[in-house]
Design goal:
Order of helices and strands: HHHHHEHEHEHEHEEHEHHEEHHEEH
Shape: globular
Strand content: 5-15%
Largest sheet: 7 strands, mixed
CATH architecture of the largest domain: 3-Layer(aba) Sandwich
CATH class of the largest domain: Alpha Beta
Number of strands: 11
CATH topology of the largest domain: Aspartate Aminotransferase, domain 2
Number of helices: 15
Strand order of the largest sheet: 1-7-6-5-4-2-3
Number of domains: 3
Length: 513
């Protein structure tokens, strides 16, 4: 019988890892796992953007005829068999962001150094809440936040934190608008709740991310709190219509308190006129939150930074490194102009987080966030940023912007494609294929044209040649290409357009054209 207390397992050295003798087994496991990752990348990830399976088909493929999850395993399985199961059952059925014709939502290929950061973060397993549970991790997050504050343009007194993504960051930003700004507007000695949240207004465009409305709902505001103001023909929100809406609401007895702008919308990549919104917010005494989850990264490039201006004038800004900083999911972030706003809103003093000497109190991240324990998210961005530098990250952003411009140029030069807007703000392109060309398509049923875009997108997906999504703009269906893959080239754009043309006849028949 084995002397190890873990002798019940076929690989005791991969459970009892406290002895140096377990290192060879761990090195073997690491080698097998890394090889499985590389096999996925080169054999599956670069083979096709997505699989052809529908949702029900994939459930049956993974779960069996019942299409329901299997019971939890009762007995141990050797690691090589588990990794092999990943290779066989899971690896072929991923969304493959690294494929060069994968024009995704906002999922880029991940920088290798980000993957290394994930590996090291999981080995160290720091809890970034109370300082003692993640000493250096707490300081690395502080440093990364300082770098993000620099990207936004914030100075002394600003702060921020890392989140799971833009949804959580937007929720925290809107929480600050309620518990800091609205509290002051109402002259309360505590954060407003209940009936005090009635009769209020927050302004946002028709391109604002759904998480703003969700945040207001979670925070207890009535459904009519969010007032959607129409964007212009390029899907940008201007200050003048917001000012008009504010004046109208004040006359009606409502109380405006916040504006939620967007810098890089999910639909089109549009960037609101942040300077104009900041002028309105300053004049009217409103909190300005900007969702720059995607667009803030444009400021990594000296050349392209002018596309996203005036973020430094906002009270809070969402930035998502797992979008255009090419980081592994998940890592989002919120930066704020005033550090004390976060601590004022979220600080609590649980009896089990004790400080023996208050004058030496370290940085406790739980005092600045809705969350308690958080992953060591900062490490992967810290390593990646050091590896590429701001200049290198900016070069990748520029490559995407240039490729999106090329994409738009190819569409503008054709008779059977159209884009809206014709020139992309950043690297997101919304376009349609017009069967038979512009003149013929103009005489067709618009609803049938919409159905056709959906059929064409699905046909492209099944083909495995490329991938784009779809969206609705001004009530019409468009194909949407998110150019956030720094591995893609002009040849990939050309091939994508060519395949769409090849698939058009069958898709048109399915759509009834």
């Amino acid at each position: 019988m084995s002397k190890s207390p873990f002798g019940w397992h076929p690989e005791p050295d991969l459970v009892g890892i406290h002895e140096p003798s377990s290192r060879p087994a761990l090195e073997r496991l690491g080698s097998e796992a890394w090889a499985a990752g590389l096999d996925y990348h080169f054999l599956e990830g670069l083979r096709r953007p997505v699989g052809p399976d529908s949702y029900p088909e994939l459930r049956e493929r993974l779960f069996g005829a019942s299409r329901m999850p299997s019971p939890a395993p009762d007995t141990p399985t050797p690691s090589s068999e588990v990794i092999d199961e990943f290779r066989r059952r899971l690896a072929p059925y991923q969304y493959n962001a690294a494929h060069t014709r994968s024009f995704s939502y906002f999922t880029p290929p991940v920088l290798p150094m980000s993957i290394v950061g994930e590996l090291l973060a999981q080995w160290t397993n720091q809890g970034v809440d109370v300082w003692h549970a993640g000493p250096s991790a707490s300081l690395v997050e502080e440093e990364v936040i300082a770098w993000l504050r620099g990207v936004v343009g914030y100075g002394d007194g600003s702060f921020g934190l890392l989140t799971s993504g833009g949804v959580m960051a937007n929720l925290i930003g809107m929480t600050l608008s309620r518990d800091v700004h609205l509290r002051a507007l109402l002259g309360l000695d505590r954060a407003p709740r209940g009936r005090e949240l009635e009769g209020l207004r927050v302004y946002a465009s028709d391109q604002t991310h759904f998480s703003i409305a969700r945040a207001l709902d979670v925070l207890g505001f009535p459904a009519d709190t969010l007032r959607v103001v129409a964007s212009d023909e390029r899907f940008k929100l201007h200050g003048a219509p917001v000012a008009e809406a504010i004046a109208e609401d004040r006359r009606a007895g409502r109380r405006p308190f916040a504006i939620a702008g967007v810098a890089g919308s999910t639909n089109t990549g549009s960037v609101d006129c942040i300077g104009e919104l900041a002028d309105v917010a300053q004049r009217e005494g409103l909190w300005l939150h900007v969702d720059a989850a995607y667009g803030a990264a444009a400021r990594l490039s000296k050349r392209d930074a002018p596309r996203v201006t005036d973020l430094e004038r906002a009270d809070s800004v969402t930035v998502d490194p797992h979008k255009w900083f090419f980081q592994a999911c998940d890592i989002g972030g919120l930066v704020v102009k005033r550090r004390e706003h976060l601590r004022q809103t979220f600080n609590r003093s649980p009896e089990y987080y004790r400080v023996n000497r208050p004058e030496d109190e370290p940085l406790h991240w739980y005092q600045y966030s809705i969350e308690g324990t958080r992953r060591f998210r900062a490490l992967k961005l810290w390593l990646s940023w050091k590896h590429l530098g701001t200049e290198g990250l900016g070069r990748l952003v520029e490559m995407n912007d240039d490729l999106a411009a090329y994409f738009a140029g190819q569409i503008a030069a054709s008779d059977d494609f159209e884009a809206i807007p014709p020139v992309p703000e950043l690297s997101i392109l919304c376009f349609r294929h017009l069967p038979g060309g512009r003149a013929k398509a103009a005489a067709l049923d618009p609803a049938a044209i919409d159905r056709y875009q959906d059929r064409l997108q699905r046909a492209l997906e099944v083909s495995g040649e490329a991938w784009v999504s779809t969206t609705k703009l001004r009530g019409r269906t468009y194909l949407r290409a998110g150019v956030v893959n720094y591995l893609s080239t002009g040849a990939d754009v050309d091939r994508t357009l060519a395949v769409l043309r090849e698939l058009s006849s069958a898709a048109a028949r399915e759509a009834g054209l």
